[in-house]
Amino acid sequence: MLDHKFIEKIREYGGKKALAEIVDLYFADQVQLLEHIREALAASDTARLRDRAHALKGCSINLGAVEIGSLCEKIERLSAAGELREAAALVDQLEFEASAVRHELQLELSK
Fold this sequence. Notes:
This protein has helices spanning 4-42, 46-62, 66-80, 84-109. Helix 2 packs antiparallel against helix 3. The radius of gyration is 14 Å and the shape is elongated. The mean pLDDT is 96. It has a single domain (4-109), classed as Up-down Bundle (Four Helix Bundle (Hemerythrin (Met), subunit A)). It is an all-alpha fold.
């Protein structure tokens, strides 16, 4: 789920407003990147799938969503190997985890 140390550091250095801005940007990026990942799978576009999974991995890890980062890394490897069926199964997990992280981040913002 979420490594709360990352959130606390952002809150400590930037305050509640900075955290809210970063989380809002992350939510927008996460939704868009998940959509692009699904589109790439549907089109069997392994390069785009790998690229979008990599982008989601980076922004997620920076916010403490390490499980999303781990899933994205696996999707990157599978897409590089052309194993789209296996990648698709992980995308289902990724979307579940993304939903859980969004919920956790919303709770963090209410503190």
